[in-house]
From TrEMBL, chain A:
Annotated protein name in UniProt: Succinate dehydrogenase/fumarate reductase iron-sulfur subunit
NCBIfam families: PRK07570.1
Organism: Streptomyces mutomycini
Domain of life per record: Bacteria
4Fe-4S ferredoxin-type domain ranges (all copies): 149-179
Family membership: Belongs to the succinate dehydrogenase/fumarate reductase iron-sulfur protein family.
PROSITE patterns assigned to the protein according to its UniProt record, in alphabetical order: 2FE2S_FER_1, 2FE2S_FER_2, 4FE4S_FER_1, 4FE4S_FER_2
Cofactor(s) it depends on: [2Fe-2S] cluster; [3Fe-4S] cluster
Cross-referenced Pfam families: Fer2_3 (PF13085), Fer4_7 (PF12838)
Keywords, comma-separated and alphabetical: Iron, Iron-sulfur, Metal-binding
The 2Fe-2S ferredoxin-type domain, residue ranges: 1-102
């Protein structure tokens, strides 16, 4: 396959960026999108240019490190992470636009790499439990109803990649925050911090400069792990409940 | 608790949902009242007079109407202020647009902000036209709403402004009603189809009901 890539290049956080055009040839349909970028970077290095910086780690769709807005879609045209996106989803001769996540809470570090530590601060605000849960066998000591366990697992699938923020026209982190809130909120182990968790995490989300939710549904469409849109509704309900219960 | 609501983006959305539902409830009653125009001038004018006597003798003449007006103004102001502040936050959160643009979300969803501005301007004109009569054409007669409605819908601009605003109401309600349900936490995966259908029905019924009046005047059904 021969492709034309239009890639966002930006030297550092302060420097202005722009789209740069590159031609890559000899791309196999079995390559992942990141392997295709590796090929581009090898050519750039050989010709003495600076390689394109992009985030990646496990390359098996479970760590949440990779990002990229590909032709306007977070993680590209398939419902998966960029590392699990393969070049067979594109045609020979295609022009592909590659941009970083765009949000004021995700400032560009370099090229396609953005700083997602705002997500870490949302987690620090309440995305944990304080109860000692013991070792693995002790987990069975606390019975969890099957529907609650399923719901917790569904929300625990969130890998914190930030595709929801990138896809949202408002740069909102509601889907991410709701996945974390609902994951711990439905479990008995998460009950002691149930109210403070949702109040503190939503407050931190606001403080980090994420936008609000206008229920466009773009986040849930983009989410590689299929966190559903009603997750946001459930968090709204939790937030209102906590506001009624906690007086401060 | 009030501070928490006002300080949070989720809280402001809650205020928007509640104020929106108040206005929506008013619109349904308003639309049904408008349909009385099809029963002739006597019944329509009598209905308009009755609105001023609701709650008598416990309430003084027009007091109920003024209570409704105060609640509605509060709802409009809270809804608009929250919408403005949340929109500012949303625009700040995405300072750099994507180079590769895609048409995102439904038309009703994308036009909520423009629709809201259109509706705010319409409400001002609508009150000056048919409540105070300040910008009314054809000689405003207090106590004769039937004739006043005929005057307004006998002008081309009266019809255009009204029909554009009514379509804006339909679109706004279609996304707004369902969104309010999500914001208030009453939506769920199982209830989603019911809520979406209800939003569509409300949008269509309100649009059709309101539009029927100018259409009836234009076609001579009401004269």
């Amino acid at each position: 396959m021969k492709l034309t890539l239009r890639v966002w290049r930006q030297q550092n956080a302060e420097a202005p960026g722009a789209m740069a055009t590159y031609e890559v040839d000899g791309i196999s349909q079995d390559m992942s999108f990141l392997e295709m970028l590796d090929t581009l970077n090898e050519e750039l290095i050989l010709s003495g240019d600076e390689p394109v910086a992009f985030d990646h780690d496990c390359r098996e769709g479970i760590c949440g490190a990779c990002s990229l807005v590909i032709n306007g879609d977070a993680h590209g045209p398939e419902r998966t992470t960029t590392c699990q996106l393969h070049m067979r989803s594109f045609d020979d001769g295609d022009t592909i636009d590659i941009e970083p996540w765009r949000a004021s809470a995700f400032p560009v570090v370099k090229d396609l790499v953005v700083d997602r530590s705002s997500f870490d601060r949302i987690i620090q605000a309440g995305g944990y439990i304080s109860a000692p849960t013991g070792t693995a066998p002790d987990a069975h000591a606390t019975p969890v109803p099957k529907p609650d366990a399923d719901s917790a697992f569904e929300h625990a699938e969130c890998i914190g990649c930030g595709a929801c923020v990138a896809a949202c026209p408002n740069g909102s982190a509601m889907l991410f925050t709701s996945a974390k809130v609902n994951h711990l909120g439905v479990l008995p182990q998460g009950a002691p911090e149930r109210e403070t968790r949702v109040l503190d995490m939503v407050a931190t989300m606001d403080d980090e400069g994420f936008g609000g939710c206008t229920l466009t549904g773009e986040c849930a469409t983009a989410c590689p792990k299929g966190i559903p849109l009603p997750s946001i509704t459930a968090m709204n309900k939790e937030w209102l409940r906590a506001t009624r219960k906690v007086h401060r | 608790m009030t501070r928490t609501l006002w300080d949070s983006s989720v809280g402001k959305k809650t205020i928007m949902a509640v104020s929106g539902l108040i206005m929506l409830g008013y619109l349904v009653v308003h639309m049904l009242g408008n349909l009385k125009i099809f029963f002739g001038p006597d019944e329509f004018n009598h209905y308009a007079h009755w609105l001023r006597t609701i709650g008598e003798p416990f309430l003084h003449y027009e007091w109920a109407l003024w209570i409704i007006r105060v609640v509605l103004v509060a709802a409009v102001v809270l809804h608009a202020v929250c919408a403005y502040q949340l929109s500012r936050r949303d625009l700040r959160a995405r300072p750099t647009a994507y180079v590769h643009r895609k048409a995102r979300s439904s038309y009703a969803t994308r036009t909520m902000r423009y629709g809201g501005i259109i509706l705010a301007l319409f409400i001002v004109w609508h009150i000056l036209d048919l409540t105070t009569g300040t910008v009314h054409t054809g000689g405003f007669q207090s106590g004769h709403p039937y004739q006043n409605v005929l005057d307004t819908f006998s002008t081309w601009y009266g019809n255009v402004i009204y029909i554009v605003a009514v379509i804006a109401v339909g679109l706004h309600v279609q996304h707004g009603f369902w969104s309010a349900a999500q914001t208030l936490g009453v939506g769920s995966a199982t209830r989603d189809r019911v809520l979406k259908s209800l939003a569509n029905v409300l949008a269509v019924v309100l649009t059709a009901g309101f539009v029927s009046v100018p259409v009836a005047v234009m076609t001579g059904v009401v004269s």
